Give the backbone structure.
Amino acid sequence: MHSPGPLPVNIPPARYYYFNDRIVDAHAPLLQLQDLGLFRGYAVFDFLRTQGGKPLLMERYLQRFRHSAEAMRLTLHLPDATLAELIRELIRKNGFAESGVRLLLSGGYSPDLFTPAEPNLIIRIEPYTPAPQSSYTQGARLVTDEYLREWPAVKHTNYINAIRNQPRVLAAGATEVLYHWQGQLSECSRSNLFIAKGGTLITPPLQQVLAGVTRGQVLRLARAAGIPVEERPLKLEELWQADEAFITATTKRVMPIVQIDHHTIGAGTPGPLSRHLLELWEREVEGKM
């Protein structure tokens, strides 16, 4: 949406993106200033990554992207098979060892800056760097915020609250902000939350959170492994009594959480269920690419 600024040292820039009907130079100006995504934040997106250079669980991400677009009344003209081939071509042309893939569908060039028009589709490729190993061996931290996310089932571009909280997250040495509302937990700004209590895995239901692709796979792995699972409303006080907690996301996989605000979770180290599910993820999902 703007000319790219300087990239951090050692982060190579992308060379090619996709815009509407063609592959373009990554530094070419794309959007006109009439786009509804710029002026009203009316847009949806999704993000996937590669594993071994190949898109991981791409079919599920494209399904979610299309669901978000339909919910926002934005027409995604290209079929998933065409989108998948474009993504593979962009990955090849950009040549990163591992790639992140961002899909964006905006509200288009609105004549009155309020009414959605023909959407603009952008596919952006970027280098992907995994989370540090210490996040898995030592665990990560979260900070909380009382906030009710608008339309959590749709992956829209409204991340105002997450960005507003970013100074708190950084000051606390945390990974993300965890949302709760009137005593009920929901999700983090960019991931889903799980706790474990007495050997049972508990996570808020889909009515309250985004349908995370990693979340869905972890639930499948847990059930296949015979781990009891509950998808139900989760009270804030249950968090402080949990044996362990972890978050799931595209870039975080199964990341143990050992501290939230000033509360230590469980023993303050990654728990056995978190470690087991991460091992299953590495073997059954990443290992089968």
Observations:
- Confidence is low (pLDDT under 50) at residues 1-9.
